[in-house]
Amino acid sequence: METTAVIDIATLALAMAAKLAAPVLITSLVVGFAISLVQSVTQIQEITLSFVPKAVAVAVALIVCGNWMISEMVSFTHAMFEQIPTLLGGG
Fold it and tell me: What stretch or stretches form a coiled coil here (predicted)?
């Protein structure tokens, strides 16, 4: 197996990981920013006020995007398994 193939697979894997993590991370970022803005305006510094809404929003994001995330991962895995013969030099 050539080094270019390994680098290509690693690049595809990292891109897939970023693509799958994006909905959860962006949701957490937006909700965290909104809650922190509300905390700054009202001067309420309660830890649970920040944690609970983010946890609920992340759960909702996983429910909404979960099917898409699984289908993307399955198609990526199928593509990787289809590349095995060419990577081993079999054709």
Answer: none
